[in-house]
Task: structure prediction
Amino acid sequence: MARISAAERREQFLEAAVTVIARDGVDGATTRKIADEARSPLATLHYCFQTKENLLFALYEQLFSEIRVEAPTALATGASAAQPVEDLMTETMRWVVDHPVRARATIEITLWAERNDPGMAGRLYALFLEAWSELLLRAGIPLPAEAVETFVRLLIAMADGLTLQMIAEQDAERTMRDTATACRVLKAYLEGSSSKAA
Result:
């Protein structure tokens, strides 16, 4: 039998964790269940991640990296100043619709961390807050830098709400329609803020 590298084994554990967490929640996703799902010894999981918390954070980082959206070039092509926000929200929710099990795992990890490890919960939230703020600043969002964090918090709240709606209703078409409505609301806010600044 071919030897599996540590990197490949880590990937197997992360994929197994998605499946188990989405099915059983984080509390029900014991390291033994995750190792069994990965068809690997429990000791190997502990060798790769040391603790369940390390595994959860690594998984969240991986899932987060899958839904990151690059800074749009829309402003350079004459599109509206709100285009980067629409791109970010639409692509994020498209990922949720296309990967409902993975989206559920991100929500499960967030809620577990909030109950069991508030410091970890803060670090998870900061991944989105920092990355999305940086992306929108680079894209030239028409807000002063000090207002961007508040705007991004609103954007995250909308994405979280739409994700929970998708998980509960399993209606991809409705989720994307509601996402389009959220984009119009955000665009109206940006246009209002731009006109006040002018």
Observations:
- The chain has a mean pLDDT of 89.
- Residues 172-197 form the longest helix (26 residues).
